[in-house]
Amino acid sequence: QVQLVESGGGLVQGGGSLRLSCTVSGNIFRVNAMGWYRQAPGKQRELVAMIGGSTNYANSVKGRFTISMDNAKNTLSLQMDSLKPEDTAVYYCNGDFLTDGMVHIVWWGQGTQVTVSS
To answer: What is the pLDDT of residues 15-25, one digit of tens each?
Structure first.
């Protein structure tokens, strides 16, 4: 069974920084890609950043957010700087994996709340 556990969310003032982490565990043979998504109240879930063969960012976060993967610690991180009130959302970790049983799965974490005050 695969688990993605997020941490690091919270309340921060505009212009501040937060670092989100997502720890991966389970019977994973290969990580194809991982990413961070977010969902604000009344809005659809949107991609924030993804890392796999390449790294991609939403235009709204380019230059402010940095995604990284520590393979030794099985941890995905998102460093968020120069935060704005519009970054307020629940942030979800996402992974595209091949399991030990050679099954392709897409898995989600439970989400962590990020609130940016003005």
So the answer is: 999 999 999 99
